[in-house]
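Support request from a user on the community tier.

User writes: "When I paste my structure tokens into the form, the page sometimes reloads and wipes my input. The last time it worked, I copied everything first. Here is what I submitted, just in case something in the input itself triggers the reload:"
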């Protein structure tokens, strides 16, 4: 298994025992796939820029009072070669790669470009955990049957997950079409949507979100635009009124404490020249979530 060493790996980890494949519980896989972006382009550069920014993230997390990488080991795989694959072929390729990592008993973290890849990981984990649920942090519902005649569009990412029969819990939604709104209304038992305005006006919203996830393995898919543009400005389609840093991290902390999280991804950043806030915050978010999961012995 080809993996990155200190110069290029996540966090710039120097001790081989803590970044080599065989000794690491976590693997980070990068899939810089961009084919259906409908507004700003450049998400294919997201995974690489997050890894670069991670070298400036501190190892020690003051909130959990430990250095998670020392406990779990984090292996960063070489980016996957897309080799001209698009739509179903690309989705199936990443599904097979993820399935391989799960078979090797790795906790898989995926850095993607488009959100369309989420179904790859959910499908792979569903084969191991038939009752899996999915938590989606996002500005957009991504529940269109198809967008621009493409069912594998980023705007249909969670529609493909829903097609698998996987219950969804969505947080931060604040942009959708009527088709998506009706799908949510017509499926109250299997799609639980916390719109941004509900998050901001409901004091115990985190507990209520977590309640929809308890009792089943949980896969978490994080679109960077779920956070407010003041936190994650460099995204494909920025929407105002998103999650604050504190809201997002405290949700992930409670999910790590109360739920059996089996894997997660971070997608949809479109890095800008001379602006590092988004990729740095994504790198910090990735490590923060790992720190929570490590602290609560989920990994």
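"...and here is what came back when it finally went through:"
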């Amino acid at each position: 298994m080809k993996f990155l060493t200190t110069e290029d790996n996540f966090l710039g980890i120097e001790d081989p025992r803590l970044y080599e494949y065989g000794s690491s519980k976590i693997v980070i896989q990068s899939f810089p796939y961009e084919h259906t972006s409908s507004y700003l382009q450049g998400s294919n550069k997201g995974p690489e820029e997050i890894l670069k920014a991670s070298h400036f993230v501190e190892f020690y997390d003051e909130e959990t009072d430990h250095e998670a990488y020392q406990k779990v080991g984090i292996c960063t795989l070489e980016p996957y070669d897309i080799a001209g694959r698009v739509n179903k072929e690309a989705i199936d390729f990443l599904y097979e790669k993820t399935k391989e990592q799960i078979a090797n008993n790795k906790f898989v973290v995926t850095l993607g470009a488009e959100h369309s890849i989420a179904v790859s990981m959910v499908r792979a984990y569903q084969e191991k955990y038939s009752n899996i649920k999915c938590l989606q942090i996002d500005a957009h519902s991504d529940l269109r049957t198809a967008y621009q005649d493409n069912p594998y569009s980023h705007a249909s990412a969670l529609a493909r997950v829903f097609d698998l029969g996987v219950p969804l819990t969505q947080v931060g939604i604040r942009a959708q079409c009527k088709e998506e709104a009706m799908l949510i209304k017509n499926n109250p038992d299997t799609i639980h949507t916390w719109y941004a305005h509900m998050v901001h006006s409901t004091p115990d919203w985190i507990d209520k979100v977590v309640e929809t996830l308890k009792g089943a393995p949980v896969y978490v898919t994080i679109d960077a635009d779920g956070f407010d543009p003041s936190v994650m400005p460099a995204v494909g389609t920025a929407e105002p009124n998103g999650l604050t840093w504190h809201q997002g991290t405290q949700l992930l902390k409670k999910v790590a404490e109360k739920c059996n999280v089996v894997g997660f991804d971070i997608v949809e950043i479109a890095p800008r020249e001379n602006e590092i806030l988004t990729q740095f915050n994504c790198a910090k978010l990735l490590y923060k979530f790992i720190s929570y999961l490590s602290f609560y012995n989920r990994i």
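Agent notes: The reload is a front-end session timeout and is unrelated to the input. The CA atoms of residues 148 and 189 lie 29 Å apart. The mean pLDDT is 93. Escalated to web team.
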